[in-house]
Amino acid sequence: MGKPPLGRCKCPSKAREQMVTAISAKSRIAKYRAKRDFGRTPEPAGKKVVPSSSTLRFVIQRHDARRLHYDLRLDLDGVFKSWAVTRAAALAAC
């Protein structure tokens, strides 16, 4: 017997939501990697596993895309959540 489709899952709603979110995240990262040429840019491809930490972590990355901006990443439960901070907003805060 195969697994029931997600629409018919008899899991508690929280577990079902987590499954759908995990599938969606894997799909989005697969699309992203398919579009990228990691040989042309210094951005890491995400193949290296970063060990979990009990301390809070953050990363600020200069992202020279179409327009220069900075990416702020905060570690939340082992996943880096990311926000783009525009150059104008950073200067306005000074």
Summarize this, please?
This protein has helices at 13-35, 87-92, and strands spanning 58-64, 68-76, 79-86. The chain is an alpha+beta fold.
Rounded mean pLDDT is 74
Q: Using only CA atoms, what is the Rg?
A: 18 Å
Spatial gap, N to C terminus: 62 Å
DSSP helix fraction? 25-40%
Largest sheet: 3 strands, antiparallel
Spans of at least 5 consecutive residues whose pLDDT stays below 50 are none
Global geometry: globular
The assigned structural class equals: alpha+beta
Order of helices and strands: HEEEH
Number of helices: 2
SSE map:
Layout: H1 13-35, E1 58-64, E2 68-76, E3 79-86, H2 87-92
Antiparallel strand pairs: 1-2, 2-3
List keywords for this structure.
2 helices, 2 domains, globular, three-stranded antiparallel β-sheet, 94 residues, alpha+beta
